[in-house]
Design goal:
170 residues, alpha+beta, 10-stranded antiparallel beta sheet, 2 helices, globular
């Protein structure tokens, strides 16, 4: 009987984790002095029992010195699968910082608004000098991976240096 319970629990966990496979959410980029428009698409890939890959794709219209260009790219980071549901964020809230070989994840605080509640803001610092870091606000009431806003800092933007691109859910 106990073995049957374990098998059912593992099957449920497997179904629950794979329900996030290739989930995505689209954000509209906020206009600033460099970025004139654009989109950021956040998606989950390669979901395993311990980790998943957060894929950040961007398509930006950038204007520097009267020259306008479209910049497209993708950033990936492998994160613990705990961050596929609210419990991972609540656990991070208790400990404050989570470090492993892939990233340093820092809890920044709670966020509430008229539309969203019980949200958590975290900051991800990828290791291995990936050229970016970012602040992400997770809200459990949002379908898919739940990020309602981001602030991604690119460390090496041509002619500019560091620049932060902010986006909100579409």
């Amino acid at each position: 009987m106990f073995k049957l319970f374990i098998l059912v629990a593992l099957a449920f966990l497997s179904l629950n984790l794979h329900s996030f496979e290739n989930e995505s959410i689209t954000h509209i980029v906020q206009k600033d002095n460099l970025v004139k428009s654009g989109k950021v698409v956040l998606s989950t890939q390669n979901i395993q029992s311990e980790t998943f890959t957060l894929n950040i794709s961007y398509n930006l219209k950038v204007s520097v010195f009267f020259i306008t260009r479209n910049i497209k790219g993708t950033k990936n980071i492998e994160l613990p699968s705990d961050f596929l549901d609210p419990y991972g964020y609540e656990e991070l809230q208790e400990v404050g910082v989570r470090d492993d070989e892939r990233a340093r994840i820092v809890y920044k605080g709670r966020f509430q608004s008229a539309l969203y509640y019980d949200c958590h803001t975290i900051h991800i610092y990828p290791k291995d000098n990936k050229g970016w870091d970012g602040e992400f606000t997770y809200c459990p009431t949002v379908p898919s991976i739940g990020f309602i806003r981001t602030a991604i800092t690119m460390h090496k933007v041509p002619f500019v240096g560091r620049h932060t691109v902010q986006s909100k859910i579409q």
